[in-house]
Amino acid sequence: MQDRTVQDRKVGPPPMVDGYDVVVVGGGAAGLSAALALGRARRSVLVVDSGSPRNAPAAHVHNYLTRDGTPPEDLLAAGRVEVAGYGGVVITGTVVSASPTDGPREGFEVMLADGRVVLGRRLLVTTGLVDELPAVAGLAQRWGRDVLHCPYCHGWEVRDQSLGILGSPLGFHQALLFRQWSADVTLFLHDQPAPTEDELEQLTARGIAVVDGEVEALEVTDDWVVGLRLRSGTVVPRQVLVVAPRFTARAEVLASLGVKTTEVEMSGHVVGTQVAADAFGATSVPGVWVAGNVADLRAQVISCAAAGLTAAAAINGDLIAEETRRAVAAMVVGR
């Protein structure tokens, strides 16, 4: 059988209607991957995206096989084209709430901020998370460039540079981790207690310096970070700052349906929240799935895309089961 690609088909998205098999809230890697799979499964799907991706400050996506180094906006643009090629509809908008419906149009009413309401037989939420950054002057403006948190996302790009690790409950762990990419690593205690004797021994063995005192601000010259200024006035030269944000799930839509978030711990410390779901993304509310960072704060772009595909397959299977039950019931009634 001939394989007909999206380019071969040259099919654009249909106009937006008020009812879909699946409404996807969030048009990042997870949401678009799910919409692509659902479109290929001949499902009508609507993706509602607010246009504020978490990785917008970053210059490139990494660890995405065959797409390493792609600008985030280019990856999303290509995904939207692919989804449209299978009949999916992607719109810009903000979903403010959702509620279950009864009767002949059973599913979920999805309310948008502009007043529009659409119905989906199933709901997939892929809204991601928010990085809540430490309160250090100048830090937010450099986020995603030379203020980082993930060595697997950015470690290669800052290899062999002078790295500062901002003290946090995860600071010791981050210092040892980033030492893989640079021999010039300094742990700034900031507002954290001094390392234990065992921790200090490990840091010393790896050549990681420790600086006491609270970090007040980033020193920036010509749009480059050149150091960290302590409250004492001392400036310690550094090219990159590593921080530990709090990762908070964007779960307002899910909250309107009674789906709650749970706290996530690393090394005995709460680092953020995510939505509990099974291995396929199904939440505690029947008909509602999640995928991506809203359900897994550790997930990178490629794993978010994979989670979207997994959830899409589960949703399609659930719809098939419902359609089969109705077909059997109709057949029995018709006898």
Structure at a glance:
Helix content is 27%, strand content 28%.
Overview of this structure, please?
The protein has 335 residues and is α/β, with parallel strands linked by helices. Helix content is 27%, strand content 28%. The chain has eight helices and 19 strands. Strands 1, 2, 3, 4, 5, 6 and 19 form a seven-stranded mixed beta sheet that branches. Strand 13 and strand 14 form a beta hairpin. The longest helix has 34 residues. The protein is elongated and about 85 Å long. The relative contact order is 0.16. The N terminus is likely disordered.
What keyword list fits this structure?
335 residues, alpha/beta, seven-stranded mixed beta sheet, elongated, disordered N terminus
Helix content: 25-40%
Question: Strand count, sense and closure of the main sheet?
Answer: 7 strands, mixed
Give the overall shape, derived from the CA principal axes: elongated
Broad structural category: alpha/beta
Order of helices and strands: HEHEHEEEEEEHEHEHEEEEEEHEEEH
Number of helical regions: 8
The average pLDDT is: 93
Strand segment count? 19
What's the end-to-end separation, in Å?
38 Å
As a whole number of angstroms, the C-alpha radius of gyration is: 23 Å
Low-confidence stretches: 1-10
Instruction: Write down the oligomeric state.
Output: single chain
Fraction in beta strands: 25-35%
List the helices and strands and how they pair.
Layout: H1 6-9, E1 19-25, H2 29-40, E2 45-49, H3 72-85, E3 89-92, E4 95-101, E5 107-112, E6 117-125, E7 129-132, E8 147-148, H4 151-154, E9 163-166, H5 171-178, E10 185-188, H6 197-205, E11 209-211, E12 215-221, E13 224-230, E14 235-237, E15 240-242, E16 246-249, H7 252-255, E17 261-266, E18 269-275, E19 288-290, H8 301-334
Parallel strand pairs: 1-2, 1-6, 2-3, 6-19, 8-15, 9-10, 9-15, 10-11
Antiparallel strand pairs: 4-5, 5-6, 7-16, 12-13, 13-14, 17-18
